[in-house]
Amino acid sequence: MEYFIPWRARRTSVVMWHSSSTQVWQNRWDGGEGYKDMFLRRNYPVYLWDGPRVGRANWACEPTNYRPNYQDQANFGAWNFGPTWPIWWDDVQFPTRDEAAWKQATSARYVEYDTEANVELQSDAAASAADSGKIGEEIVYLTNSAGGLRAMVTATKANSTNIKGILTYESTGYVFPDNLNITAGVGGFGPFIVPLERFKKLARLSAIQFVWGDHRPENHTSVVESQLVAKLINQYGGNAEVLKLGDDAGLRGSTHIPFADLDNEEVAGLLDDFLEENGLDEYEDGDNWV
Predict the structure, then answer these.
(1) By the 8 A CB rule, do 208 and 233 touch?
(2) Most buried of 49, 161, 265, 282 (most Cβ within 10 A)?
């Protein structure tokens, strides 16, 4: 956990949870300012989280297997840069003519362990960290891709009230209660089934928002799952919603990692709204002067 604490901090700690590399939080695709500096400048304590076995936390406590493989074409599709390799979306928020930017993006990716065991391992560690109070008593997880599932599972495990919100960018994998006729998935992308009482912990958070770019069809499996989970959370008294960057906010050409896109200032503005509307932008001393 790498952290940055401003001189005059807001109460909410922003924990940035990736599924590829902490680099995506630190810089825009073209090297411009990323979310880490943007929200540190806004006076939020910022934490960059490498979960167990990932990135800088990659020393495992048990044997693991790694087989090198060529990942560029898979990254292009998974990150939604275009309909198929190497065809870019016409409006994509990526510097498509900058070969160095593409090489930096695809080579910065860490090895992922997308298994059920890793979901449990990372969420156990994150829940312990949240309950410790060492990363604050008001925590908002910003997540991307498979990190969203892990953050949701974490919130169902935590015993304290320190986790206040989750905002997922294009989450792949969702948590469901065990009172529905939903079959658990095999692997690290869900569906992940938990006891109903654990699921209800998601309804106790101040807010949850599932964010999608404009190049995801309405019938995409993860989009459908996010809508269902938001509905279930709200049925138990929670505050969850799905935000479409295109339809709801007029932002076009978003990739799978919109907070690193060329229009990340506009995407960050929507996060400002989320934090303010849910009372998660207050200062520790209660005074909002800047």
Answers:
(1) yes
(2) 49
Question: What pLDDT sits at residue 289?
Answer: 56
- List CB contacts of 218: < 8 A, sequence separation 6 or more: 224
- Peptide bond connecting 191 to the previous residue in cis, omega within 30 degrees of 0: yes
Strands 139-144 and 13-17: parallel
Per-position b or e across 138-163, b if 16+ CB within 10 A of its CB:
bbbbbbbbbbbbbbbbbbbbbeeebb
In this prediction, the residues of the chain whose per-residue pLDDT falls under 50 are: none
Give helix 116-132 / helix 147-157 axis angle, nearest 10°.
Answer: 50
Look up the CATH number of the domain holding residue 144: 3.40.50.1820
Domain span at 194: 2-61+69-277
Q: Quote the CA–CA distance of 276 and 270 in Å, as a whole number.
A: 10
**Residue ranges of E strands in the chain:** 2-4, 13-17, 46-49, 139-144, 163-169, 175-177, 192-194, 207-212, 240-244
Q: Is residue 285 part of a domain?
A: no
pLDDT at residue number 287: 65
In contact, 155 and 29? CB cutoff 8 Å: no
- What pLDDT, on a 0 to 100 scale, did the predictor assign at position 40? 98
Q: Residue 141: its pLDDT value, please?
A: 98
Question: How far is it between the farthest Cα atoms of the chain?
Answer: 53
Task: Encode pLDDT of 195-249 as tens digits.
Answer: 999 999 999 999 999 999 999 999 999 999 999 999 999 999 999 999 999 999 9
- What is the model's pTM? 0.96
Strand partners, 241: 209
Q: Would residue 121 count as lying in a domain?
A: yes
User: How many distinct structural domains can be found in the chain?
Assistant: 1
The reported pLDDT for the residue numbered 288 is: 63
